Amino acid sequence: MFIKRQAIPSPEQIKEEQPLPAALKKIKEERDRLAMDVIAGRSDKLLVIVGPCSAHEQKPVLDYVARLGKLQQKVEEKLVLVPRIYTNKPRTKGVGYKGMFSQPDPENKEDILKGIRTIRQLHLSAIGLSGLSAADEMLYPENYAYLEDVLTYNAVGARSSENQLHRLVASGIDLPVGIKNPMSGSIPVLLNSIYAAQSPQVFKYHEWQVETNGNPYAHAVLRGRVDNYGNDIPNYHYETVMQVLDGYRRTEGGLKNPAVIIDANHSNSGKQFKQQIRIVEEVMQDCRYDRDFKNIVKGFMIESFLVEGCQKHDVVYGQSITDPCLGWEDTERLICDIAEKV
Fold first, then answer.
1. Contact 74, 336 (CB under 8 A)
2. What is the pLDDT of residues 42-87, one digit of tens each?
3. CA distance 102 to 143
4. Most CB atoms closer than 10 Å: which of 228, 233, 265, 311?
């Protein structure tokens, strides 16, 4: 039984209520171009999607993004930094804190309308403060419309990559969409998802039958896999990346813009957040070893916040309340190290 609690305005109404100013739109358009150029191979820079596992409070997120904006100026010749402002949190068992979209105050009850307004204002403030437009996870495809004009990068998570609607919506996004390998780690399933997202589609979206042209910037994200016993199995190593490259080449009908982003956390690190540093270092070493590897690896996803680790409740300012993250000092050193090795 569905109990109706609150009517939610349409995306058009919310965007009219909280419009993207022209000056910020111009900034975002330039950031979009930079990110697309990396995925398409028109730029030799690397894309680094970096930030907290889940953005649960506005002030520390804006503090973090402001620091990232200053760091972007330092590494702009080598890297395109995209802050993670992830406002939907997938839950393996379907219960628990589901992110700012549903629960703008993690200590209080769900309030989706307040969540929508809160995260839209967060994105607008982040662009104005840092000059950086952000990434979010498209956990609920219909929610994307509330943020489509403020995001530069979208991620489709491991639990969603086999879902038909996620693939179809990704086909209509004119920006990079990183599709993670499914929890099983299947490379054929991952490539099928990318193929679907790169193909023209017809489907129902909100109140319309829509048509898309396909998204040539849909690409692979390797995040590790989980075996039948719940063990984390990494897949960032040279052999797996080259298998993905081979799969891109062999896919019947062809795939555009072969690209892989390495997710340094999750099952690649076993959520041992400090391991992200070592994982990035190994991938950069492999980039120096093999030109084909270097050409397909377009960057990294890194989980990072102001304070390292995690906490159950929002007590420590700037520390994750979901998965553990690198602290700011390690993050800054890691990003500068990546820039030196590009």
1. yes
2. 999 999 999 999 999 999 999 999 999 999 999 999 999 999 999 9
3. 11
4. 265
- The answer to the question of residue 147 being in a domain is yes
10 Å Cβ neighbour count for 66? Answer: 17
Residue 10 lies in a domain: no
Give the Cβ contact number of residue 217 at 10 Å: 24
Contacts of 294 (CB under 8 A, 6+ apart): 286, 287, 288
Decide: 323 and 310 in contact? Cβ < 8 Å.
yes
- Give the C-alpha separation, 138 to 88, whole Å: 8
Split into its structural domains, the chain has a count of 1
Find the CATH number of the domain harbouring 130. 3.20.20.70
* Residue in the block written with tokens 């390690």: 330
Q: Does some domain include residue 229?
A: yes
Longest dimension (CA), the chain: 58
- Spatial distance between the Cα atoms of 56 and 219, rounded to a whole number of angstroms: 27
Q: Which domain holds residue 253?
A: 24-341
* Cβ contact 314:106 at 8 Å: yes
Tokens of 199: 């193909």
Q: Which residue has the tokens 């054929």?
A: 188
Per-residue model confidence (pLDDT) at position 254: 84
pTM tops 0.85: yes
Q: Does residue 77 belong to any structural domain of this protein?
A: yes
The C-alpha atoms of residue 48 and residue 331 are separated, in whole angstroms, by 11
**What pLDDT is stored for residue 253 in this prediction?**
77
| SS3 letters across 195-219 | HHHHCCCEEEECCEEEECCCCCCEE
Q: How confident is the model at residue 96 (pLDDT cuts 50, 70, 90)?
A: confident
